[in-house]
Design goal:
two-stranded parallel ribbon, mainly alpha, about 0% strand, 2 strands, single chain
């Protein structure tokens, strides 16, 4: 296997977690060696054919148990939830490059980088989770993030607005406070993992902004207005603040977008 779309199809439609991580690493290595092909041969399968492991059980967010971080169970639940977010992020990166064809080569290179880094994040969290006597899949997880991918499967602008520029950007807002919280309970390894994720996610959101603006320019659309319309259509409301304004500006948000997000 040496074609990026074959790797994407395998990662999206095979359920073994370790195989998915191995394939992602292999694709990245081939790319680094200049041996990965980017020519699409077949059309993508319907997004509803994407397959997930049997565990964790996926529940609607309202059915997820709420645990406080101050207890061992709360720490387990936090890292399990974070592992799930990073695991689904591997799917999201593979899916955007698999599903949307006819984009410039760099589009596929960028999202391959995201898939590779999300797999590293997941591996780090999973190893840390095991030190807390639990493994990924031992607790239920929410299904909301992938539902956003299903909703935007036919619209690349909507996908870019909702996944990197809404859901992932939210991580830029909340992660600094989480880092301080884990520093306060002397979980230095957890702090190191969160700092790595925070650093990499800024690049991921920047990729989302770059390609969102590229696509708006290509379609002769006002990017600020289009972002607002897509958020209201697919997210159903505005994301709640507070927003990490300094970092959001750094990764491609405009002052107009931030003013709209912060307005009542």
């Amino acid at each position: 296997m040496n074609n990026i779309f074959d790797f994407a199809e395998a990662c999206l439609h095979r359920t073994d977690i370790d195989e998915k991580l191995q394939l992602t690493t292999q694709a990245w290595q081939l790319y680094q060696q200049g041996e990965l092909q980017f020519n699409a041969i077949s059309e993508p399968h319907d997004i509803n054919q994407v397959c997930f492991p049997e565990k964790p059980e996926l529940l609607a967010p309202k059915f997820m148990a709420r645990r406080k971080l101050g207890s061992p169970e709360g720490v387990q639940a936090f890292y399990h939830a974070l592992a799930h977010i990073e695991f689904i992020a591997i799917y999201l990166a593979w899916d955007i490059l698999y599903r949307f064809r006819g984009m410039p080569l760099k589009f596929y290179q960028d999202w391959l980088q995201v898939a590779h880094e999300e797999s590293l994040h997941f591996t780090l969290i999973r190893e840390h989770l095991r030190k807390h006597d639990i493994d990924y899949g031992d607790l239920p997880a929410h299904q909301g993030l992938w539902e956003h991918a299903q909703d935007t499967a036919s619209d690349i602008l909507a996908r870019l607005a909702i996944i990197p520029r809404c859901m992932e950007a939210r991580g830029l807002d909340v992660t600094p406070a989480m880092i301080e919280k884990f520093r306060s309970i002397n979980d230095q390894q957890g702090v190191n993992i969160l700092e790595r994720i925070y650093h990499d996610e800024q690049q991921h959101v920047q990729f989302g902004s770059d390609w969102f603006h590229y696509q708006c320019q290509k379609q002769q659309l006002n990017s600020d207005q289009t972002f607002q319309e897509l958020i209201l259509k697919y997210y159903k409301s505005k994301p709640k603040g507070p927003f990490n304004k300094q970092v959001r500006l750094k990764v491609g948000f405009s002052e107009t977008e931030l003013a709209w997000l912060e307005s009542q």
